[in-house]
């Protein structure tokens, strides 16, 4: 769609002038020294903590995944134990209706969410980055074809498209393997990064340093890899962190709709789905609060960290 | 005018590609409709061949696609294979479309109604504690997907406070007030997914507007801040807002699938999920096409309206 195209181009054109306008009012020097602040490091620590726990979930002193607490579940079922009383030394975040330890489940869900999120975005950034740089640098028919395909893919709401794709893949066995799931999601993030990278390659290709390299007789591949790539990649990296958060949300949504990886894969979206029936909500609402909290904190941290890094990069750019 | 025609024409190949992709993907779904319809009778090869021919499934792929396309243009989207109710896909789409449209519009209006004052306050009080609080609120809504917000709202307002009914959709025929009561939580849920992006956009846009010369001019003429904000600064910024609202329509319609599932609404999303579950290819295809056409046409119309509203765009064309 041309609308988004013009929107991105406009923004890239407008932002430098805005920064220049702002410069006389606010001195540039203190801006560049701006610290990330407490909240930033808090978000980083949550992400670090989550990664650490998710990778070592089987070694932590918490209940094992298959060690179901039937007694407690039954007691909660007949009303003799209130849900809030299932918290304790045995279960740090309580158990759900089926006697599953919620902390163990949430951390296993974190494994899936983080793996899917990071791997998908890596695929999308690499794929979209290569295509975007080629399209933005060489222009011509190549660019027209890529752009048309991108527009076609982006005009189907991604969620609907994924819903269809995953259902097709899961139709035979009722489940989708992790690599195939990631490949599908990754393929659908390619257009987004294609657009971003193409727009910034277009912009960078007109800069003086490219002209200088060209007049020094540098080959086109060299210009693309050694000159343009380093300038294009930085803003994309900050964007990628936010992208990881978005993919975690998409994975959760698909699982919630029953179109996730299926099988016995534990994921945050699946936990939400399992806990959000009306009667279950009344009996054990904490089974819903736990995955909700994990999703919220993780996506919030990713958004926050990504934004702060991007802000800092923008300040640096405007100082040049 | 010529631009308008060209712009509309550029939508056609996109629709073609989208339907072709969807069509081929549905063909890849295992379990064909013939077996589904016949059930136990599927062991009889004569019956299978007969029905396959009847449904036109024996023809080559491109012929199937073309005949579907031709029928679609005539307004015939085919019928359900094993619905039993004998409903055509057009009936299903016709029944479910208004629900989704209503939900989407309510969410959009709600999101705009909240984000315009929030974004303006944030830009006006840029750098203050209020601004920071709004920005934190943006992060919070940005990080709360619909499938988290929805169930939590149901829990708080439906089960704990018992203010609103949950788990059922009340049609308008049962009374307007009851209907609106059943739609308010879904609309809020869908609106939260868009709130942050609108507010942020408006804040950035207004922030740069307030630095423009015409604002300084208005101020020096002694106009009140309130008047300047609403009359001078909001008007140009509202254009950006309209564009983004149009672009985000896809996300809204996609999000309505989830929201319809959470709140049990019978909209297009619900029809789509049922279609996938029951292997009703034509229903899925019809709904995906309708949604895509809606998105593309809205985007085009907004793009064209842009020229009507904003004289600057007209000149540059």
Describe it for me?
The complex is a heterodimer of chains A (320) and B (317). By secondary structure, chain A is mostly helical. Chain A contains 13 helices and no strands. Chain A has helices spanning 2-25, 28-32, 38-55, 70-77, 102-138, 140-154, 158-170, 178-205, 208-215, 220-256, 268-275, 278-283, 286-319. In chain A, helix 5 (102-138) packs antiparallel against helix 10 and helix 6 packs across helix 8. The longest helix of chain A is centred in the middle third of the chain and has 37 residues, at 102-138. Chain A is elongated, with a radius of gyration of 24 Å. Mean pLDDT of chain A is 78; it is low at 1-33. With 317 residues, chain B is an all-alpha fold. In chain B, 77% of the residues lie in helices and 0% in strands. In chain B, helix 9 packs antiparallel against helix 12 (249-263). Chain B is globular. At the A-B interface, helix 1, helix 6, helix 7, helix 10 and helix 11 of A face helix 2, helix 7, helix 8, helix 11 and helix 12 of B.
Chart the SSEs and their pairings.
The complex is a heterodimer of chains A (320) and B (317).
Chain A: H1 2-25, H2 28-32, H3 38-55, H4 70-77, H5 102-138, H6 140-154, H7 158-170, H8 178-205, H9 208-215, H10 220-256, H11 268-275, H12 278-283, H13 286-319
Chain B: H1 2-9, H2 11-28, H3 33-38, H4 45-54, H5 61-73, H6 89-124, H7 129-142, H8 146-160, H9 176-209, H10 213-220, H11 225-247, H12 249-263, H13 268-277, H14 281-309, H15 311-316
Helix pairs in contact in B: 2-14, 6-7, 6-9, 6-12, 6-13, 6-14, 7-9, 8-9, 8-12, 9-11, 9-12, 10-11, 11-14, 12-13, 13-14
Which pair of chains forms the biggest interface, and how many residues does each contribute? A-B, 51 and 57 residues
In percent, how much strand structure appears in the residues of chain B? under 5%
- Which stretches of chain A are poorly predicted, pLDDT < 50 over at least 5 residues? 1-33
The structure class of chain B reads mainly alpha
Mean pLDDT of chain A equals: 78
Structural class of chain A: mainly alpha
Count the beta strands of chain A: 0
Taking the alpha carbons of the first and last residues of chain B, their distance comes to 11 Å
Percent helix range of chain A: over 70%
């Amino acid at each position: 769609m041309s609308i988004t195209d013009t929107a991105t181009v406009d923004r890239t054109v407008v932002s430098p002038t805005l920064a220049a306008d702002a410069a006389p009012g606010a001195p540039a020097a203190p801006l560049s020294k701006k610290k990330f602040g407490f909240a930033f490091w808090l978000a980083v620590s949550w992400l670090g903590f989550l990664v650490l726990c998710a990778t070592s979930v089987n070694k932590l002193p918490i209940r094992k995944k298959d060690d179901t607490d039937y007694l407690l579940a039954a007691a909660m079922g007949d009303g003799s134990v209130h849900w809030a009383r299932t918290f304790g030394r045995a279960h740090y975040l309580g158990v759900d209706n089926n006697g599953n330890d919620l902390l163990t489940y949430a951390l296993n869900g974190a494994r899936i969410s983080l793996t899917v999120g990071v791997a998908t975005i890596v695929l999308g950034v690499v794929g979209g980055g290569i295509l975007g740089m080629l399209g933005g640098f060489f222009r011509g028919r190549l660019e027209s074809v890529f752009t048309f395909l991108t527009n076609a893919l982006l005009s189907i709401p991604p969620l609907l498209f994924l819903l269809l794709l995953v259902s097709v893949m899961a139709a035979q066995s009722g489940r989708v393997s992790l690599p195939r799931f990631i490949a599908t999601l990754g393929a659908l993030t390619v257009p987004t990064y294609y657009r971003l990278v193409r727009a910034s390659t277009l912009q960078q290709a007109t800069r003086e340093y490219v002209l200088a390299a060209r007049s020094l007789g540098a080959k086109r591949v060299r210009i693309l890899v050694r000159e343009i790539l380093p300038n294009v990649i930085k803003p994309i990296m900050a964007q990628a962190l936010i992208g990881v958060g978005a993919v975690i949300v998409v994975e959760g949504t698909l699982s919630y709709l029953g179109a996730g990886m299926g099988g016995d894969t534990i994921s945050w979206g699946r936990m939400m789905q399992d806990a959000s029936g009306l009667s279950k909500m009344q009996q054990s609402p904490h089974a819903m609060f736990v995955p909700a909290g994990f999703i919220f904190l993780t996506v919030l941290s990713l958004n926050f960290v990504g934004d702060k890094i991007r802000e800092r990069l923008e300040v640096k750019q405007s100082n040049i | 005018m010529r631009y308008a025609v060209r712009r509309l024409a550029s939508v056609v190949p996109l629709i073609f590609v989208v339907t072709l992709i969807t069509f081929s993907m549905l063909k890849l779904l295992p379990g064909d409709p013939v077996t589904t319809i016949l059930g136990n009778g599927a062991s009889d090869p004569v019956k299978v061949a007969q029905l396959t021919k009847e449904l036109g499934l024996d023809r080559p792929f491109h012929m199937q696609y073309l005949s579907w396309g031709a029928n679609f243009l005539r307004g015939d989207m085919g019928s359900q294979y094993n619905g039993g109710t004998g409903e055509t896909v057009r009936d299903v789409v016709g029944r479910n479309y208004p629900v989704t449209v209503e939900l989407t519009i309510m969410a959009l209006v709600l999101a705009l109604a909240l984000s315009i004052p929030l974004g303006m306050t944030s830009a006006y009080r840029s750098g203050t504690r209020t601004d920071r609080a709004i920005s934190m609120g943006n992060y919070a809504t940005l990080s709360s997907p619909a499938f988290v917000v929805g169930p939590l709202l149901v829990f708080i307002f439906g089960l704990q406070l018992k203010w609103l009914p949950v788990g059922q959709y009340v049609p308008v025929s049962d009374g307007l007030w009851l209907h609106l009561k059943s739609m308010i939580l879904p609309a809020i849920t869908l609106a939260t997914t868009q709130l942050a992006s609108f507010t942020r956009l408006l804040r950035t846009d207004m922030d740069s507007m307030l630095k423009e010369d015409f604002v300084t001019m208005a101020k020096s003429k002694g106009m009140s801040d309130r008047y300047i904000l609403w009359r001078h600064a909001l008007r140009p910024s509202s254009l950006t807002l309209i564009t983004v609202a149009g672009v985000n329509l896809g996300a809204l319609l996609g999000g309505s699938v989830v929201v319809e599932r959470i709140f049990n609404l019978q909209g297009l999303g619900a029809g789509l999920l049922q279609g996938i579950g029951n292997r009703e290819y034509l229903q899925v295809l019809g709904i995906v096409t309708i949604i895509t056409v809606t998105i593309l046409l809205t985007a085009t119309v907004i793009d064209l309206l842009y020229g009507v509203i904003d004289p600057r765009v007209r000149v540059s064309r």
